[in-house]
Amino acid sequence: MCDLVARTGRHQQRYDAGCRLVAGCIPFRYRDSVQSGDANTEKIIEVLMINSTSGPGLLFPKGGWENDETVQEAAVREAIEEAGVRGELMDFLGYYHFKSKTHQDEFCPEGLCKAAMFALFVKEELQSWPEQSTRNRTWLTIPEAEDRCRHAWMRDALENGFSKWHAGKDL
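User: That's the sequence. What structure does it adopt?
Assistant: Structure tokens below.
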């Protein structure tokens, strides 16, 4: 049983110019490559994706940015609620626009969304988390994640946001 509870409802939701504001992250970790007989192990980067509750393909954790939190707090909260991970929120990767088919409301009748995405270095995988009954976690290499990503905007965040950011980092 999880002590954490996922937020629900739209009463605290932020909007800007007809767009629902969303916060999310690309959780990542490093693992050693498996090369037999080689003393120099290379670090392989893996990203964490979760299943969609509304169809095929995988997603990065994201959700509504609410009035009582910063965009960074919202991104961290979504990682805990949807993927059951905690870590260090690194850098802002960019804004990504998309149209939601499931989140149309009076403030955003066309379902337009603007997602602020961040890199999250995972330090802890929780044994229980709010959405574990509907979400499965999958660690993937970047090429695997690109192939299995459900939405084009998330693939763009991975390829042109995260991968370029990571290539410029000395982690």
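The longest strand covers residues 85-99.
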